[in-house]
Design goal:
Blueprint (H helix, E strand, L loop, with lengths): L2 H20 L1 H12 L13 H7 L7 H18 L8 H20 L26 H14 L7 H38 L6 E6 L6 E7 L3 E8 L9 E4 L12 H10 L3 E6 L2 E6 L4 E3 L5 E4 L1 E8 L2 E9 L6 H12 L5
Helix pairs in contact: 1-2, 1-5, 1-6, 1-7, 2-5, 4-5, 6-7
Length: 340
Amino acid sequence: MDSLSQLVLGAAVGEAVLGRKLGNRAILWGAIGGTIPDLDVLSGPFMSELGELIFHRGISHSLLFSVLFALLLGWLIHRFNKTTSLVTRMEWQTMLFLAFFTHVILDCFTVYGTQVFAPFSDYRVSWGTVAVVDPLYTIPLLLSLTITLFIIRTKRTRRVVNYLGLALSTLYLLFTVYNKSRVHTVFENELKAQNIEVTRMMTSPTIFNNILWSCTAEASNAYYVGLYSFYDTVPVKFTRIEKQHTLLNNIDSDYTITKLRWFSDNFFTINNADGKLLFNDLRFGAYFDKEGNKTDYIFSFHLEEEDGAYEMIETIIGPPKGQEKEYIDTFFARIWGVNS
């Protein structure tokens, strides 16, 4: 989930656990706790592009980290922060554990993938019910925290307002779970109606909303991608995308390729345009023009081959340069079923 959402969730947790004793300082400490797992991005300058990709949402997003680092940091804060003597060591540790672990759980609702069981397993939990940025999740927490800041810490109203924000954001997450189930059924029925046989499929909401959803379905030699909005009145249009995995050598043994396959959950296609070899992660969907035709991929990795081994040169995210406004306008129009 985006940094702002994680920060306000952590702040709300801090207020819920320590607000009565610390007031607004509890919000600050909670916000710090909710941000800490994402500090793994600071490793970027010291790692390769591939190493950074693997490390993000790794050990710092695990249950083990949530427990051990909460115990350690809670002890340190209690030991050296003399201004908060009213708070016990266990209360600090409890608050930090909840700030860390709610961060981890929230990330699991996105499609990116979170290594909850690291370092014992590199399995990536990904429920794909909410976009990485979704204002409808963040706004209730942000509004409740803003109001909470101006209420005296001993007032019962302060706790009620904070819990209301937490309740509304949590209810929205539960709604997205129901939403995904309904949308998944829609895509399944559409594939059957169009006589498209697939071995597996995945669905996820597009950025900023839970109205327009993307589907990637895998067949033997190709994928079928399509979009569905709640406002659509015509059948889903699926675009066939050839896998083109044969463009890669040593696909089962090359280190870079095996890691990218792990990252993409094997939902990927390869293309070589103008001599540029791209590994396209289809979990994040594709860009479509006004007629509903696929034009580009949202999440890709530029590869180079040398001496039979591949190296990941760069990560490519977002629409082609110079075409941002066109893609954004088309995207928001598509949310409301304009092209249906």
